[in-house]
What does this fold into?
Amino acid sequence: MQLKAPHLLGIEQLEPDEITLVLDTAESLAEISRREIKKVPTLRGRTVVNFFVEPSTRTLSSFELAEKRLSADTLNFSASKSSFVKGETLLDTAKNLEAMAPDFIVMRHNQAGAPHFLARHCSSSIINAGDGAHEHPTQALLDAYTIRQRKGALKGLRVAIIGDILHSRVARSNILLLTRMGAEVTLCGPPTLIPREVERMGCGVTHRMEEALEGVNVVMMLRIQLERMHAGFFPSLREYARLYGLDARRFQRAANDAIIMHPGPMNRGVEIMSDVADGNASVILEQVTNGVAVRMAVLYLLAGGVEREEAAA
Amino acid sequence: MKKLLLKNGRVVDPASGRDAKLDVLIAGGKIAEVGAGLSSPDAEVLDMKGLVVCPGFIDMHVHLREPGQEWKETVATGTRAAAAGGFTGIACMPNTIPVNDSRSVTEFIAAQAAEQGTVAVYPIGCVTKGQMGEELAEMGDMIEAGARAFSDDGKPVLSSLIMRKALEYSQIFDLPIIDHCEDPVLVDGGVMNEGDVSTRLGLRGWPGVAEDVMVERDIMLAEYTGGHVHIAHMSTGRSADLVREGKRRNVRVTCEVTPHHLVLTDEAVATYDTSAKMNPPLRDESDRTALIEALADGTVDAIATDHAPHHSDEKCVEFALAPFGIVGLETAISLCLGLVHEQAITLERMVELFTVGPARILHLDKGTLAQGADADITVLDPDRELTLEAASFESKSANSPFLGWKVRGAPVMTLVGGRIVHDARAISPSR
It folds into this structure.
C-alpha cells in the first residue's frame, strides 16, 4: 500500500488507512535509530531541500536526521540566507529550487497555503513542515504515534487540546487526525483564542479547564506566545497561567493513566508547570524521539510514490 | 449618423414598464421611437429575433486604474472591456495614483475617456482629501469636471464626524456618498470571510459584522442628516436587513451587490485560490441566499461588478499576500442571466438592477428607452452558451474565479449614443 497523493500537504488529504500506514511504517523504521550504525540506504541518491522560510529548530533538526538516516542528500535553504529576503517572490524561489531538481521539498512557511502554492508550481514532492496557522501534518502524525505507543489505539480515546487554538497549526492537524481516527477531541482556551465555528471540524469546545480535563486520556498543551497578550487576546501571562496553566492539581481530574503532551517549545510556568512537564505522565521527550521515525516514514512512503510515478511515465 | 432600426427583439425597459416584442428606431443618437411594426426606409435594419433589447447597462463600481497603475488597466482597455461586457456606462472609483480628490484628476480621467473611451465614464471623486478621512475634498469643483458621486472606497470614512459632514455637505449637489463599509480595526488584517472555512484553512477572518456595524452607522447618520448614503458591494444578510429597515423608515439609503457575492461562497477559497480573494470577501451560503432574497424583494438598488483588475504577477503569490479584487465587467451579465435561468430573479428585475437602478442613484439621465433618450442600448442573448475565457477578455487583467465556467446567456451587442461599440451577434456560440 502507498499514499495516494505525491505530496503531504496536510492531514486533510489523508484517509484513516493512510494514517495507519504512516504509523505502522514509522514503527518499523524506529528500530534504525536504535542501531549502532543509524543509517539505511533507502533514499541514497535522492535530494531533499529543507526550505524553511520561518525559523524552526526542532522540526528542521528532526527532518534532517530523518533524511540522513535514510541516506538522502540534504540541502538547507533558509529564509535568512536566501534571496527571499531580497524580495524574490515565492514563485521565483520555487522555480529556482525546482531547477535544481530535488526529489523532495520540505517546507516551513509563515503563510497558510504556501506549500499548496509550491505543489502547484513544482514537480517535486512537497512535505508541509508547518504553514501559518493551517497545518503541521508531521507533528500530528508523531503525536498520534506517541499516543498509540502508550495507549495501543486512538479510537475511543478522549483528548483535550488546550491553549491558543486560533493560531495553532498543531491543533488543526491534530483535530483532523484524531477525529478521523475515532478519538473524541475537546478544545479548551479563552474564547478569544478559539476560532469561529471550529466545532464544525467535529470537536467539542469549552472555556473551563476543569471541564476539559475531566476523565481525559490525553492532555495536549499548546504554546502560548507573549505577543498574543499585546494583541489583546488575554490580559496577562499571569492570568493566563491561572486559568489555563496545567499543574499537578488540575491534572488529577484526568484519567489515572493519562499522558501529557506538548509540541514545544514549552513556556514553563505559563501553559505548563514543571511538576507535570517533568512528571511521569509527560511524554514530551518521546514526542521528539518519535518525530524522527515518523518523518522517515513519510519520506519513505512518498519516495515510493515517486517511484510509482516514474514507472507510469 | 446612420439611422438604425432594431427589429423583432423583446424590449425590456423597466423604467417605462415595457416588456414586449417591439422595434426600436434610433436616429441622431437618440431613441426616435419604440413600437410594433416600425419601418423607416433610410434606416439600417438589425434583426433582433431571439434577443432582448434593453436600455444600456451601467456598472457603478469599476476600478480603471488610470492614472497610476496602467499595467493593470487603463481607461481605454477598461471601457473596451465594459463595451464587450454589455455596459454603456461605468462609474470609476477614485483610488488611482494620485487619488481622484481634485478637479485636475477628475478632468484627466474625463479627458482620457473622451479621447480613448468606448463607453461613458462617470468619475467618482474622493470624499476626503488624499482619501485620508480627515478633510472634505472639493466636491463642487469635481462635479463641474464630471464627478457623479463621492467615495473613499477601499479606505472607508472611519470618522463618524467626517461621515456626518460629508452626508451634510453632499446635499448641496444632491449626489450620494458611497461607502465601502468596513471597520478596518475589527477586520484586523482578515483576508477571507470569518467562519468555518477560514478556521479550517488557518487564514485570518474578515467577519461580516465588521461590515454590518458600518452599514448601521451610515444609515443612522443618513437618517440624522438627510443625506444620501450608498452602500457599496453589500455582502452580508445582516446588512441587507439593515438597509431594508432603513428604507422602511424612509432613510435615503441605497445599496449595490456584486455578481460574485451572488454566485460564490467562501468555499471558493478552499484551494487558496487568490482569484477568489476580494474585499469584501465571499461570504457563506446563508449570506448568499439572503442577498438574492434582497435582490428579489427590492432592497437592492443595483448590481455592480467592483471590477478590480490586478496583474497575474501580483496575484500569483501566497494567499494572504495577494491584493484583493477580481475583474467583473466581462462576466457579470452572463452570471446574472444564470440567476434568471435559476429563477432567483426575473429578467425584468435583472435589467432594472443594471439600468434604471444605478441611473437613479447617480442621478443620470440614462437607463431608459423612452423616446428622446440617448440611444445607449444593451442587447442580450439569454440562451447563448459559452465558456468564460481569459483569452476573450478585453480587460488587461484576467484575475477571475470564473474562468472555465460554462454559462448560458451573454451580452451580444452594445450601442452607445446610437453607435455600435461592440457586436458579437455573429460569433458562433462555441467560440
Notes: The CA atoms of residues 129 and 137 of chain B lie 5 Å apart.
